[in-house]
Amino acid sequence: MTISVENPVFVHEDSTTEKKTGELRMDSGVPMSKISSDDEVFLAPEMNAFGRQFRDYTDTNSERQKSVEHFYKTQHINQSLDFVKKMRSEYGKLDKRVMNIWECCELLNEVVDESDPDLDEPQIQHLLQSAEAIRKDYPNEDWLHLTALIHDLGKVLTLPQFGGLPQWAVVGDTFPVGCAFDESNVHHKYFMENADFNNPKYNTKTGIYSEGCGLENVLMSWGHDDYMYLVAKENGSTLPSSGLFIIRYHSFYPLHKAGAYTHLMNEEDKENLKWLHVFNKYDLYSKSKVHVDVEKVKPYYMSLIKKYFPENLRW
Predict the structure, then answer these.
(1) What span, in angstroms and rounded, lies between the C-alpha atoms of 142 and 154?
(2) Closest CA to 145 of 8, 308, 284
(3) Which residues, 6+ apart, have CB-to-CB distance to 214 below 8 Å?
(4) pLDDT by residue (tens digit) across 101-113?
(5) Percent above pLDDT 90 for the chain
(6) What is the pLDDT of residue 269?
(7) How far apart are alpha carbons 129 and 140 in whole angstroms?
(8) Which residues are annotated as part of the binding site for Fe cation?
(9) Which tens digits make up the pLDDT trace of 226-254?
(10) Known binding residues for substrate
(11) Helices 294-308 + 142-150 axis angle, to 10
(12) What integer is the mean pLDDT of 69-79?
C-alpha cells in the first residue's frame, strides 16, 4: 500500500487569493499550510491497510470489527468516574520504571492495539509513520515531530512491567467521565451498562463540571493518552501546551471528529484544538504496511528527545 505524505492543503473559503508561500499561519481560526511550489499535496488514502474505510465500525461481518465492538462494549461498561480516579491515583505516582523516551519507543514493538480497525502493525511503526509524514510537511515545527513520535507511548500500560492493564483500560477512543456520555461516542449503546449512566450527578450535559471550565479540569476515560500526558508533564517536558494537548486528547474523537463536548472548553483549548486537527490527519491516515527505517531516522528523533525531555523519566 502506498501512502503519499507530502504537503497538506487545508481548505480556506477564499482560496483564490492565497499565494504559494509554503508558510504556516493562523487564518480564520484554522491552521493553514500553503501548497508547495511543485503543488505536491498530502493525499489521504480512501482505504485502510485492510482495504476498508478508515474508522468504519459498521461492518458486522468482519471478524476484526466484531472484536473491536466487543472491546468498546467492555470499555464503555467499565470506564466510570470511580475507575478513572483510581487509575489516576495509582499511575500518577510514576513509580513503575525509570527509562528514557527511546527505550519506551522500543517497548512498543510488543504492543498491538486491539481497538484499532485500521491497523495491526507494531505501534513503533505507526509512531514513525506519523512523525515522518508531519516532518515532511511541517519541517520547522520540531515539537510536532516529537509529539507524533511519543503520542502513543502510554500504550506500554498493557505490558506486565506496567501492570498489564487490559486493552479497554489503555486504548480506544476517549471521553469525559462525570457528565453525560455524548451519543457521538462509537458504540454508544453500551454506556447504558455503565454505573454512571443513570446517576443524576453524572448524567447531565455538564455533570460535575461547568461550561467553559477547560478540559484541563475534566477527567477523561483512563488510557494511554492521559498516562503519557502525566508522564510528560510531571517529568518537566518543555513541549508547548499544544503538544501536551495533542498527547492527552488525540483519542478524544467525539471532540475533534464530531464536535461534541465543546461546551467544556476554554479559550486555550480552542487554540490548541487547531493543532490537534492538524495532527489527527497524520495520526489517522499515515497508517500503512510500508515500514520506516528505524535506524535511519533515530538520530534525528534522539536530538529532539534531548531538547524537550530530561535524559531519564519516571514512568
Answers:
(1) 21
(2) 308
(3) 264, 265, 266, 268, 269
(4) 999 999 988 887 6
(5) 68
(6) 98
(7) 18
(8) 126, 151-152, 224, 250, 283
(9) 999 999 999 999 999 999 999 999 999 99
(10) 55, 113-115, 155, 172-173, 250-251
(11) 110
(12) 96
- Give residue for cell 503520542: 151
> Would you list which residues are annotated within the binding site?
55, 113-115, 126, 151-152, 155, 172-173, 224, 250-251, 283
Residues recorded for the chain: 315
**Which residue shows C-alpha cell 515531530?**
145
The letter for the amino acid at 158 is T
Distances (CA, A) of 15 to 11, 12, 30, 39: 7, 5, 13, 14
